[in-house]
Amino acid sequence: MSQKLKEILNISKIIIGFDFSKKTRSPKYVAARSVFFKAARVLTNMPYQKIADVFEKDHATVIHGIKLFDNETVHDPKMSMAYKDITESCIALYDGNEEDIRTENAIITIATLRSRNRFLTAKMDAQRISYEREIESIKSKQIEITTIYEQLDTEEKRRALYNVRTIKKVSDKMKTQVLR
Predict the structure, then answer these.
(1) Could you tell me how far CA 75 lies from the centroid of its own chain?
(2) pLDDT (tens digit per residue) in 74-103
(3) Which of 32, 38, 19, 22 is nearest to 79 (CA)?
(4) Alpha-carbon torsion 59, 50, 17, 96, what sign?
(5) To the nearest 10°, the Cα dihedral for 98, 91, 61, 75?
(6) CA 34 to CA 66: how far, in whole Å?
(7) How far apart are CA 49 and CA 66, in angstroms?
(8) pTM to 2 decimal places
(9) Is 94 in a helix, a strand, or coil?
(10) What's the 3-state SS for 144-158?
(11) Residue 95 and residue 91: Cα distance in Å, rounded?
(12) What is the sign, positive or negative, of the torsion defined by CA atoms of 171, 176, 179, 180?
């Protein structure tokens, strides 16, 4: 295997986040290999068979993997970003610009941090959406309770407040017992 293919493979494994060289047809592994096949072909223009040799496959597997990437994997945001990060990292590694000293480890670190940043950003966005939905649900329940409360006469309001206070006290006692 050529040195350049080894470096592309190592960078790909780090950016994608797992060793996809395992012999399996699991969609997760197939998609990851398709990203590598596409990046290796674009970055090196090596024959399909040389790229296939990395995984002890034949050239048809690489052709199929590239087609899979172009037709399906490209629609997976995580894999699309992985492909972009792999190609950018490899191009930076091989840019030949002596003024901008870059080592393979620095490129890999940057790629890893970018990948982790995307993951954390997605996680924060999902949490924010969850909180926004919860807030909307609470606001809706608050409006519903306020509407019902306004329709009660004075005695019913007094009993409702008493019941709410009692439920709150019981709830607080249960929480302290659970925390012990």
Answers:
(1) 14
(2) 788 888 888 888 888 887 776 654 444 445
(3) 32
(4) negative
(5) 170
(6) 6
(7) 13
(8) 0.56
(9) coil
(10) HHHHHHHCCCHHHHH
(11) 6
(12) negative
